[in-house]
Amino acid sequence: MINNFNLNDYSLWTALVTPFDQHGDVDYNTLTKLVSDQEAAHNGILLLGSTGEGLALTLKEQQAIVEHVCQLKPTVPLMVAVGGSNLKQQIEWVNYCNTLPIHSFLLGSPLYAKPGAIGQTHWFESLLNASAHPCMLYNVPGRSAVSIPAATIQNLQNNKNLWALKEASGSIAQFEAYRQAAPNLAIFSGDDALMPYFAQAGAKGLVSVAANAWPEQTHEFVKRSLSGQHPNLFAQWSSAINSLFAVANPIPVKVLMHLQGRLSSPQLRPPLTHLELTQTDCITTANNTILSWH
Predict the structure, then answer these.
(1) Residue 87, domain extent
(2) Would residue 189 count as lying in a domain?
(3) CA distance linking residue 195 with residue 188, whole number of Å
């Protein structure tokens, strides 16, 4: 039986990294511990997002990861990412996940093809209608090569499964365009460092990379951002968060988690490699800063 979580109670979702061992295989023992860390911080868990390197995993690995985490029966809700460019395959993935005790989907823009408002409306509507759960759309032009048009959001705003939007373009103007197109849609920041600004603009929360390394601290960061009573948050967190994006995400956060002892290995799947990060002083300094933050 699926726990009836109120998704609106969770203002922080951690885009969980996929732990690999030194041979490049999924490290399920470490995955279990990472889930426990997020549970303890009361953070929602997103599986197989871009930070989770979902596209570098085989279908069997994707299925095994979701099944493994479901079997753990975490006390926080689970969101599963849907991403690619083949609509039929993505619908099949949604149908498969519908049979598991998950609670939401993250629906990414179709990759590479760069469809316009009509094409994206069809893409998202097809996935929304296939879903048995509330869905968060994902605007990430830096990875998909195209933004979700505000017209698409407007077209979809009355779909019963459209719950939220992850906005990761880094543009407050884009955020405002989405708010105007669908005033009742919950919008989450997809950029850790911009959370204080997006909170002032009406964001409901954050889908985070930093929370992998700093679960409790990032939870408090989001809480304070949403309260609007801590004006120096950006100054306190910006340099630390920026260190996690010195090279392609999720390389720095996995290297940091290895240094922290959270990961047995900093391994990633090609074409990403931890060898890109040749200098770790920056993330070590950031770690010391955030762990002493209060």
Answers:
(1) 7-231
(2) yes
(3) 9
